[in-house]
Amino acid sequence: MAKTTLNLASTILIINILFLSLICSHVPVNSQDIFARKLSKREMGLKREKLSHLHFFFHDVVSGRNPTAVRVAEAAMTNTSSTFFGAVVMIDDPLTVGPNISSKIVGRAQGIYASAAQDESGLLMVLNYVFLEGKYNGSTLSILGRNKVFSQVREMPVVGGSGIFRYARGYAQAKTHTFNLKTGDAVVEYNVYVFHY
């Protein structure tokens, strides 16, 4: 009888411990204890996904008193490299409606580009398009990709965004409009196709 009572008491104790550990492991102390959870689009206020096309001109000015693109780093061999391999440039380039620098500014391209190819002119582009116009004011698109600058049309991925462009994905096509060999200044036409909510 004592043995049965001991086994029964041990079994009840084990069941209680398992029950308490099960409850404690599934009930967070507060909302900060939750690492991840599934959400519905409705919960986040997301409606139907849209596809937008943006068209603008990117003005990369490296010359003059107020350049919008400034070299901030370079490798020792950059001066002898025909591709400027290792050079890193910080930019705050205006984005305009037309190819003229005097046309309406709709945003800025802010970030860096770096010469990442030894044998050809290939840039690593890491930048945000920061929009300043209309319903896009305050929204951004993030670009991260390769820009083979002497190709007629280059394509770079849109990897995200903010504001109207939250959850953005798509691509940007760049086409050189003008390039001044003497100054290094360039105007690049962009067509950006982006899915967003």
UniProtKB/TrEMBL annotation:
Protein known as: Uncharacterized protein
Taxonomic superkingdom: Eukaryota
Lineage of the organism: Eukaryota, Viridiplantae, Streptophyta, Embryophyta, Tracheophyta
The organism of origin for this protein: Catharanthus roseus
